[in-house]
Design a protein that fits this description.
heterodimer, A: mainly alpha, two-stranded antiparallel sheet, B: alpha+beta, Alpha-Beta Plaits, three-stranded antiparallel beta sheet
C-alpha cells in the first residue's frame, strides 16, 4: 500500500466524519426550526442568519457547564457510557456510501468511511452496541429513574431491532436476485439500484430502480423500526423528559451533550441507511458532459443528502404529529405487529423472488 | 385504513400548519424586542408619579397606596410642604416614595386607592435588573419630569421604544375625584391623566347633563 493510498483512506474517513458532524449541527437546528413551524412558532432565530448557529451556541454553553458527578455513581461506567453512545453512532455512518467514487491522482476513492463486505451486519452490530450505552448510563447513575429508563430502553431497542433486521434481510434477499450472488456491502447494494425498472415493463422505464418499489412493506417497517431504534418520538419513552425521566437524568454538561450528539448522529445515520437500502443511495441523474466535471462528481452526494433529508424530515414531522406511546402499546406494536409483518413480508417476497428466478416450485 | 388513515390525517394537520406558518398566515409569535405586540389599553405596567399641568406633584404623602397594597411593596413617607416653595398643592407631599418591583403584583389597587390620581400605571414592562437594589424604584425613577415624561429604565438600549413613554394607559376609577360615590352614569374608565396637558374633570352636574344626551 503506497502512501498515496493511505492518504486517501485517511482523507475519506476525515471527510465522512466531517460531513456527519456538519449535518448533525444542521439537523439539531433544523429540527427546532421545523417543529416551530409546525407549532405556529418562529423557532431559534438569534444566533447567526435564521439562527443557524444555534447548535454551536448550545454546544458551547454545554461545554462550559459543570459536569456534575453524583455521589452514588459507579464512576468508571458513568464516565464510559457517553463514549459508548457516541462511538457506535459514528461508526454506523462509516458504512454508508455518500457519493459516487471519485478518482484522485489515478487512485479511485470511494466516498465512504469503509467499504466492508459485511456492512449491513456491522450496522446491526453497532446499533446493538449502542444499547449498552443506555443501560450502562442508567445503571451506573445509582438512581432510580435512570435505571428504569435504561431497562425500558433496552427492552425497546431489542424488540425493534428484530423488526429492523428482518426488513433488512428482505432487502438483502431481493438484492441477491438483482446481480451476481448476494451481498451485504452497502456500496454494492447502491450500485445494484442504478438504472430503472424498464425491464419489468416499458411502462416503468421512468421509475428509478430503487428497492422501495418492490420492497414497500419492508421500507415502512424499517422506517418505524429506526424511529424506535433511535429513541425518537413517538417511541421516545426511553428519555421521556416530560413525565417518566430517562436514562441520562444524572448527566449534565458535556457528558449529556454526548448523548444528545449520539441521538442526532443516529437519526442521520439511520436515515442515510434507509436512503441507501431503499431509495437508491447516491443514484440519480448526474448530467455527465452537460455540466462541468466537478459538478457531476458532486451531484451524487447531493442526491444522497436530498434523499436522506427527506427521511430526516419525516422523523421531525412524525415527532410533531404523534403523541408518545404507552409502554404496553410500544411492545404490542413491536412484537405483535411489526415482527410478524416483517416475517410474513420476508417469506412472501422471498417466494416471489425465487419463483421469478428459478421458476415455479413444481418445474 | 384505520390506524394508518388516522396517522396520515395527523400528518396532514401538522404539515398544513407548517405551510401556513412558513407563509406567515398563522404565525402567533413575534420577534419580541424588535417587534412589539400592541398592548391592551388597560395594560398594567410599571408605576409613575404624576404631576399637575403646572408642574406640581400630585402625591400628598397620604400612604393610602402603601396601606392598600396586598404585596406590601410600597413605602411612603410624607413631609410638610414648605409654604413658600410647595412641592404639591396640598399640605404634605411624598418625600420618600419607593416601590419594590420584585414584590409588586401589578394589581393596580394603589392606583384605585390614590385620592389624587398621583400614582398610575404605564405601558412599560421591561424592568429586568442585575441586582435587587435596582428593582426598588425610588421617587427619582417614578416621578415624571416637567414635560410629563416618565423616566425610562434603559434609555440607552438600542431597542428601547422611547415613544412608548408618551402612551397613556387606561385604568378603572373606583372613586370620583371629589370622593362622591354616586358619580355614575358614564363610562367609568378612561385614559389616565398621564403625560402632557389634559382637560379637567367635569363636575357631577355636568356629567349628568351630558349623560342624558351622549352616554345614555
Amino acid at each position: 500500500m503506497s502512501w498515496a493510498e493511505i492518504g486517501l483512506v485517511v482523507l475519506r474517513v476525515v471527510l465522512t466524519f466531517g460531513l456527519l458532524l456538519v449535518v448533525t449541527v444542521i439537523n439539531v437546528w433544523a429540527e427546532r426550526k421545523i417543529l416551530a413551524d409546525m407549532q405556529n412558532r418562529i423557532g431559534p432565530d438569534r444566533a447567526g442568519p435564521w439562527g443557524i448557529l444555534q447548535t454551536v451556541a448550545d454546544g458551547l454553553k454545554l461545554f462550559f457547564k459543570e459536569s456534575v458527578t453524583p455521589r452514588r455513581v459507579e464512576l468508571g461506567m458513568f464516565l464510559l457510557a457517553p463514549f459508548l453512545a457516541v462511538v457506535p453512532a459514528f461508526l454506523i455512518f462509516m458504512m454508508v456510501p455518500w457519493g459516487r467514487p471519485v478518482v484522485i491522482g489515478g487512485n479511485e476513492m470511494p466516498l465512504q468511511g469503509a467499504d466492508l463486505n459485511i456492512g449491513l451486519l456491522f450496522i446491526l452490530a453497532m446499533s446493538s452496541l449502542a444499547v449498552y450505552a443506555v443501560i450502562l448510563a442508567g445503571w451506573s447513575s445509582g438512581s432510580k429513574y435512570p435505571l428504569l429508563g435504561g431497562v425500558r430502553a433496552t427492552a425497546q431497542a431489542i424488540s425493534y431491532e428484530a423488526a429492523m433486521g428482518l426488513s433488512m434481510v428482505a432487502v438483502v434477499v431481493f438484492t441477491a436476485t438483482q446481480g451476481e450472488g448476494g451481498t451485504l456491502s452497502l456500496s454494492e447494494i447502491v450500485t445494484r439500484q442504478s438504472g430503472n425498472w424498464g425491464d419489468i415493463s416499458p411502462l416503468f422505464a421512468w421509475v428509478p430502480r430503487w428497492n422501495v418499489f418492490p420492497q414497500i412493506a419492508a421500507f415502512v417497517i424499517f422506517l418505524i423500526a429506526i424511529v424506535a431504534e433511535t429513541n425518537r418520538a413517538p417511541f421516545d419513552l426511553v428519555e421521556a423528559e416530560q413525565e417518566i425521566v430517562g436514562f441520562h437524568a444524572e448527566y449534565s454538561g458535556m457528558r449529556f451533550a454526548m448523548f444528545f450528539l449520539a441521538e442526532y448522529v443516529n437519526i442521520f445515520s439511520m436515515s442515510a441507511i434507509a436512503a441507501t437500502l431503499f431509495l437508491g443511495g447516491w443514484n440519480g441523474p448526474t448530467f455527465e458532459g452537460v455540466v462541468p466535471g466537478l459538478v457531476s462528481a458532486l451531484l451524487p452526494t447531493v442526491w444522497f443528502l436530498a434523499k436522506t433529508y427527506a427521511i430526516v424530515f419525516v422523523f421531525f414531522w412524525v415527532r410533531a404529529t404523534l403523541p408518545r406511546l404507552r409502554y404496553d402499546q410500544l411492545m404490542t406494536l413491536g412484537w405483535k405487529r411489526l415482527i410478524p409483518a416483517a416475517v410474513v413480508w420476508l417469506v412472501v417476497s422471498s417466494v416471489v423472488m425465487g419463483w421469478r428466478q428459478f421458476g415455479p416450485p413444481w418445474s | 385504513m384505520g390506524v394508518f388513515g388516522e396517522f396520515l390525517k395527523g400528518l396532514k394537520v401538522t404539515g398544513g400548519v407548517m405551510l401556513r406558518t412558513i407563509s406567515g398566515r398563522e404565525l402567533v409569535t413575534t420577534r419580541y424586542p424588535q417587534e412589539m405586540r400592541e398592548k391592551p389599553q388597560r395594560f398594567h405596567g410599571r408605576h409613575v408619579l404624576n404631576r399637575y399641568p403646572d408642574g406640581m406633584e400630585k402625591c400628598i404623602g397620604c400612604q393610602l397606596c402603601a396601606g392598600v397594597c396586598p404585596a406590601d411593596c410600597i413605602y411612603v413617607r410624607g413631609k410638610d410642604n414648605d409654604p413658600d416653595n410647595p412641592v404639591s398643592p396640598g399640605e404634605r407631599y411624598g418625600y420618600v416614595y419607593e416601590v419594590n418591583m420584585l414584590r409588586c403584583i401589578f394589581c393596580g389597587l394603589c392606583v384605585e386607592a390614590c385620592p389624587t390620581e398621583a400614582i398610575t400605571m404605564t405601558h412599560l414592562f421591561e424592568m429586568s435588573t442585575t441586582n435587587r437594589q435596582d428593582a426598588i424604584y425610588t421617587r427619582e425613577t417614578l416621578l415624571m419630569d416637567e414635560r410629563g415624561r416618565v423616566p425610562h429604565v434603559f434609555p440607552n438600549d438600542p431597542l428601547a421604544d422611547l415613544s412608548e413613554l408618551d402612551a397613556a394607559d387606561g385604568w378603572l376609577k373606583a372613586t370620583a375625584p371629589a370622593g362622591v360615590a354616586a358619580y355614575e352614569g358614564f363610562v367609568m374608565w378612561r385614559e389616565t391623566p398621564g403625560p402632557g396637558d389634559w382637560s379637567p374633570e367635569p363636575s357631577q352636574e355636568e356629567r349628568d347633563r351630558r349623560s342624558e344626551t351622549e352616554d345614555g
